[in-house]
C-alpha cells in the first residue's frame, strides 16, 4: 500500500532575533497532494486490461470489490504510475489511511495556514 511518509515535516531549532532567544521554533512545511479517483473505465485503460470492466477490481488493502480506486499523489502522472504499481485504495481504506496518518484536507487553494 502506498502511504506517503508525512504530510508535514517539522524542524526544531534555536535562534536569536534582535536579542530575543526563541527556542524550539516549529517550521511547518505543507506538501500539497491531491486525491485522484479512477473508475473502472480508467483503470482498464491504464492497465490495458479489458477484463476489469466485467470482473471489476479489488482494493489491494481490504480485498473488497470496488468500482473506484483512489490514489494520493502530487500529480496525475504520478497517480497513474502508482495505480500501475498497484497502489490504489477503495474509498473506505483511503479515509482510514488519511485518518490514521492525521492528514488535514483543504479545498484547493484554501489552506488556512498556521493558526488559521
Can you give a write-up of this model?
Strand 4 (57-58) and strand 5 form a beta hairpin. It contains 4 helices and 6 strands; from the N terminus they run βββααβββαα. It is an alpha+beta fold. The radius of gyration is 19 Å and the shape is globular. The two termini are 32 Å apart. 28% of the residues lie in helices and 32% in strands.
- Low-confidence stretches are 1-22
Total strands: the figure is 6
Return Rg in Å.
19 Å
Instruction: Quickly count the helices.
Output: 4
Distance between the termini: 32 Å
Question: What strand order characterises the main sheet?
Answer: 1-2
What helical percentage do the residues reach? Answer: 25-40%
Strand content: 25-35%
Sheet of most strands: 2 strands, antiparallel
Topology pattern, helix = H, strand = E:
EEEHHEEEHH
Shape: globular
Structural class: alpha+beta
- Average pLDDT works out at 75
List keywords for this structure.
globular; 116 residues; alpha+beta; two-stranded antiparallel ribbon; disordered N terminus; 32% strand; 28% helix
Topology:
Blueprint: E1 8-17, E2 20-30, E3 34-39, H1 40-47, H2 51-55, E4 57-58, E5 65-66, E6 68-73, H3 76-84, H4 91-100
In short:
The chain has helices at 40-47, 51-55, 76-84, 91-100; strands at residues 8-17, 20-30, 34-39, 57-58, 65-66, 68-73.
Amino acid at each position: 500500500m502506498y502511504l506517503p511518509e508525512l504530510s508535514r515535516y517539522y524542524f526544531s531549532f534555536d535562534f536569536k532575533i534582535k536579542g530575543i532567544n526563541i527556542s524550539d521554533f516549529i517550521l511547518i512545511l505543507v506538501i500539497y497532494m491531491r486525491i485522484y479517483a479512477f473508475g473502472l473505465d480508467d483503470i482498464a485503460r491504464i492497465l490495458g486490461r479489458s477484463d476489469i470492466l466485467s470482473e471489476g477490481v479489488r482494493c489491494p488493502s481490504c480485498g473488497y470489490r470496488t468500482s473506484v480506486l483512489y490514489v494520493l499523489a502530487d500529480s496525475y502522472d504520478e497517480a497513474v504510475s502508482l495505480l500501475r504499481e498497484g497502489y490504489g485504495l477503495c474509498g473506505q481504506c483511503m479515509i482510514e489511511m488519511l485518518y490514521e496518518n492525521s492528514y488535514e484536507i483543504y479545498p484547493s487553494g484554501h489552506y488556512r495556514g498556521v493558526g488559521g
